[in-house]
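Quick illustration for those who missed Monday's session on complexes.
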Amino acid sequence: MKEFVISEAKVETAVLVGLITPEQDERKTSEYLDELEFLAETAGAKVVRRFVQKMPQANSVTYVGTGKLQEIASYIHDEDEAGREIGMVIFDDELSAKQIRNVEGELKVKILDRTSLILDIFAMRAQTANAKTQVELAQYKYMLPRLQRLWTHLERQGGGSGAGGGKGSVGLRGPGETQLEMDRRIILNRMSLLKERLAEIDKQKSTQRKNRGRMIRVALVGYTNVGKSTLMNLLAKSEVFAENKLFATLDTTVRKVIIGNLPFLLSDTVGFIRKLPTDLVDSFKSTLDEVREADFLIHVVDISHPDFEEQIQVVDKTIADLGAAGKPSMIVFNKIDAYTWVEKDADDLTPKTRENVTLDELRQTWMAKLNNNCIFISARQKLNMEELKVIMYDKVRELHVQKYPYNDFLYTIPE
Ligand SMILES: Nc1nc2c(ncn2[C@@H]2O[C@H](COP(=O)(O)OP(=O)(O)OP(=O)(O)O)[C@@H](O)[C@H]2O)c(=O)[nH]1
Ligand SMILES: [Mg+2]
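Prediction with guanosine-5'-triphosphate bound:
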């Protein structure tokens, strides 16, 4: 009988590379790399080392400088010698075709950037036909400008020596180009097919939305991993997949929620993230239509995250890009149970930093100006949920009366 050896699935290891630039100081870069590491883990890779370089801007040929690239190459080589294979190098910014080609030539391992890593996670997460189609289209969009000639070796041979030298000899000048053209055409055809399919899905979805009746539509929006799905599950008593990974949700879920005598629709959507190319956001158009067409936005914020203020800005900007700025909205500061701060010694006279601020002090800052447009909760520990429902009731009711003045179910008070 044949024996099967079950080898342990090997976790791919990754090295991260980021830059410190005039726009992105050391602290920011380290936060970005923390997030990139979280993304890598979500995709199933283990990060073993980070390389950071200070530069006025990214090198257009190799992203980092040549010296740094060599340092990374020799690290990969040494690890390989020691039997610890490095599976991939992940760059924190989107790389151009030229950068990928040069970096790959030097490092000789799989090269990813933030965008392709996010796309990889999206591909892993996509469940419905809609999400799958959107992800595939986004992947081709990313790939197209980065297509490379597969047959460059032939060209080099042709162009090198002997008769007909110069820029590729007769008969050999073509194949590279033709192959590239063919690949490009195949991809373009596939892309237009996917676009047609999405248009079809869009049509079905908008019909579905129209058939939902006269109810106010509320959308949960926010940075990835802030607790949108957890909150959705609590409010709608549903079971949307929530976990401590980035982009747990890709597909929009819509549920009917009733608070008091007021029914409305609540949707949970894909989370936003920094450095997400607008192109990618575009590809998720039909998922994000839910946000665009919502009457009210609940912006969920993870207040325990050291960088929550920048996350708020990213979300606001993405909402504006979607053309949904200026909608009535409120902020829900979630995860108050996980909020931490460091008490300063009484004799420590250095100014307080963000780390030294208590939650109460924080509430007195710009948040105080939000009045009734914000609330502090913990979805996990179900803190302040009743208060949240009261605010939601008031907001939704106001919108409802404006939009459907003749709907009378509002006025029948349940027993
Ligand atoms: N400590 C704490 N953790 C929470 C709270 N609410 C949610 N979480 C956790 O945060 C993680 C992310 O929650 P999700 O509900 O999946 O977040 P999401 O915003 O839907 O994330 P994506 O769909 O990935 O964008 C999970 O591990 C939750 O258990 C909270 O109030 N306190
Ligand atoms: Mg979610």
